[in-house]
């Protein structure tokens, strides 16, 4: 496993009280140092190139973001730049490209791009939800350009990744699977959104009611996420690893405990072992409680760096039918595309 991280990620500043604050990068610094001391290789990213970004973003948008260099700008009601933000966002997208290159070349089985700002809300021509460039999408497009036939993106951030879905919703070579609180920001992610044109069936949404617990996530992974991935047979699995479905998170209302992040990651490693020589690239997204962020990163890195094993799901001891309800909705929407028991 390799960790791709830069202490420069703290240079992207947001206004006082903003949840995507630079202290998140300092947590990542501590986590990176801890795993480096345990023998995990940690490397600094290169900046993404214009060509790499232009696979998913419009040239006019790239020009608009680059023009924020040296300035503090509100791009939307949630999304801000500071003078260094453009340069830092290039490093976040570049870290994802680096992770993809190393894993696709076979020098590493798994990689984590531990970055900020996050990316999955960024659209082709629009910054939103704290995101400037869509890091995971830039990485998936790079994997495709380097010869990967099929890429799967699994997004367990508590928010729906509207940007990632829209960038690939007509593309049958990139499967997008998302678990998220619903209804919630950004509003997209209904089970009936299954992709369009040749991409129909290659968008899989698992909208969960607020309050979902460990067992609900385990149910949707066992009944939908893993079976769909096995049938899709990707050449690479990417993870939009957001930690804001944690019970401590101040933004959202899910109740996941820390070990679930390792369990979800391990469940994906198991499928990757079967269909793509274990190739998994994770990219951080949200996660706004600093203590939960550190613990969830540790759980995820432990799952990415150790041997492949059965996922160890925690038990909340709370009865919930949210997972079952979601599985029923998603199965109904996707019955024409995937065999789901
Ligand atoms: Zn989020």
Quick take:
The chain has helices spanning 23-37, 50-54, 59-66, 85-105, 135-145, 162-168, 214-232, 259-275, 290-305, 322-334, and strands at residues 2-4, 41-43, 73-76, 79-81, 110-113, 151-155, 174-181, 203-208, 236-241, 280-284. The protein is an alpha/beta fold. The two termini are 34 Å apart.
Structural overview:
- The protein has 341 residues and is α/β, with parallel strands linked by helices.
- It is 39% helix and 14% strand.
- The strands form 2 sheets. The chain has an 8-stranded parallel beta sheet, sandwiched between helices. Strands 3-4 form a two-stranded antiparallel sheet.
- Helix 1 links the parallel strand 1 (2-4) and strand 2 (41-43).
- Helix 4 (85-105) packs parallel to helix 5 and helix 7 (214-232) packs parallel to helix 10 (322-334).
- It is globular, with a radius of gyration of 18 Å.
- It starts with a strand and ends in a 7-residue tail after the last helix.
- The structure holds zinc ion (ZN).
- Zinc ion (ZN) binds next to loops.
Topology (elements, then pairings):
Elements: E1 2-4, H1 23-37, E2 41-43, H2 50-54, H3 59-66, E3 73-76, E4 79-81, H4 85-105, E5 110-113, H5 135-145, E6 151-155, H6 162-168, E7 174-181, E8 203-208, H7 214-232, E9 236-241, H8 259-275, E10 280-284, H9 290-305, H10 322-334
Parallel strand pairs: 1-2, 1-5, 5-10, 6-7, 6-9, 7-8, 9-10
Antiparallel strand pairs: 3-4
The chain binds zinc ion.
The site of zinc ion has 7 residues, from loops.
**Low-pLDDT segments, ≥5 res:** none
- What is Rg? 18 Å
* Overall shape: globular
Strand content: 5-15%
Proportion of helical residues: 25-40%
Number of strands: 10
Q: Roughly what is the average pLDDT, rounded to an integer?
A: 98
Largest sheet: 8 strands, parallel
Distance between the termini: 34 Å
Number of helices: 10
Strand arrangement within the widest β-sheet reads 2-1-5-10-9-6-7-8
Q: List all distinct small molecules, including ions and cofactors, that are bound in this structure.
A: zinc ion
Order of helices and strands: EHEHHEEHEHEHEEHEHEHH
């Amino acid at each position: 496993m390799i960790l791709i991280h830069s202490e420069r990620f703290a240079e992207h500043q947001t206004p006082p009280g903003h949840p995507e604050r630079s202290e998140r990068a300092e947590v990542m610094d501590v986590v990176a140092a801890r795993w480096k001391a345990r023998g995990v290789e940690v490397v600094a990213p290169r900046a993404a190139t214009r060509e790499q970004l232009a696979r998913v973003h419009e040239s006019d948008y790239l020009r608009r973001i680059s023009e924020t260099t040296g300035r503090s700008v509100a791009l939307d009601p949630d999304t801000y730049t500071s003078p260094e933000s453009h340069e830092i966002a290039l490093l976040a997208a570049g870290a994802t490209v680096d992770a993809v290159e190393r894993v696709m070349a076979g020098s590493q089985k798994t990689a984590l791009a531990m970055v900020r700002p996050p990316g999955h809300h960024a659209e082709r021509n629009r910054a939103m939800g704290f995101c400037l460039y869509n890091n995971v999408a830039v990485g998936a497009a790079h994997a495709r350009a380097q010869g990967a036939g099929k890429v799967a993106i699994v997004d367990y951030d508590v928010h729906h990744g509207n940007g990632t879905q829209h960038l690939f919703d007509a593309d049958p070579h990139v499967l997008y699977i998302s678990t998220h609180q619903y209804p919630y920001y950004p509003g997209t992610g209904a089970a009936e959104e299954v992709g369009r044109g040749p991409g129909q069936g290659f968008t899989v949404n698992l909208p969960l009611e607020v309050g979902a617990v460990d067992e609900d996530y385990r149910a949707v992974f066992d009944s939908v996420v893993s079976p769909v991935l096995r049938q899709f047979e990707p050449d690479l699995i990417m993870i939009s690893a957001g930690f804001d479905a944690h019970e401590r998170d101040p933004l959202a209302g899910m109740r996941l405990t820390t070990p679930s992040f390792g369990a979800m990651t391990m469940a994906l490693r198991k499928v990757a072992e079967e269909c793509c020589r274990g190739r998994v690239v994770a990219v951080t997204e949200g996660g706004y409680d600093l203590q939960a962020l550190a613990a969830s990163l540790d759980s995820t890195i432990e799952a990415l760096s150790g041997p492949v094993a059965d996922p160890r799901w925690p038990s909340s001891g709370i009865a919930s039918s949210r997972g079952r309800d979601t599985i029923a909705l998603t199965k109904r929407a996707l019955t024409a595309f995937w065999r789901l028991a």
